[in-house]
Protein: protein-tyrosine-phosphatase
Organism: Acetivibrio thermocellus AD2
Amino acid sequence: MIVDIHCHVLDDIDDGPKTLVEALSLCRMLQTRGIDKVIATPHFIGDYDSKVTPKSVKEKIDILNKEMKKQHIKLEIYSGMEVFASNDTVDRLEKGEILTLNNSRYVLIEFSFENIPKYMSELLFSMQLKGYVPIIAHPERYNIRYRKSGIIKKAVENGALLQVNSGSIMGVHGSEVRDEATRLLKSGMVHLVATDAHGDRRPIYSVMEIQKKLTEICGTENMKKFLYINPQRVFEDKDVEQTSVVKKSFSIFSFFKK
């Protein structure tokens, strides 16, 4: 059973599909790629966009699920959001303005790609104090400042989770992002891999392709946790399993390269 915990599958609500026809096309594609369940995660950016509310998201999901049933698309959609971090994120969560992933304690959250918010560590800590588990979306795409500052590493040490995009692993966003995704996957800090699909603008790789690539990078056990075990655990609101660090291989040739 494959659960995609990060996907922009709903129409006319964010930068995903523009129409219901496009949304259905994406759903059909996800099904053929081997995905069984999708948590719809439209961008929540607070007062900057009034389209994304719990009510509108659930209504869109109901329409999409009904239409898929008519068209014999065997995919199930569940509710969530990708929250753009702000000072009032915790307040909005407590007020019910933000949807967690399938009504669990898990919250998919993203930060500015370029600049590290001064409140980042405090926000993540505050979320956890309230019983939420933050999942930081696609950290491999963030500016190198995040890595140099050590703030992502510290966040994970303090209980946050990391989700890497499958497209990043395959080089969709370029070699730098691919290399950072690989480094993170090997570091033992990543817990989940998801599509972050927005439509047909970028390739959506099959589960088998991603499984093969992940196994090459970090071994079978880690691959199973990234792709199968932990997404299902998030979906069921259970604790995720920790992944392991991939040790560097050593050879006599690598010694002489030093």
Notes: The longest helix spans residues 207-235.
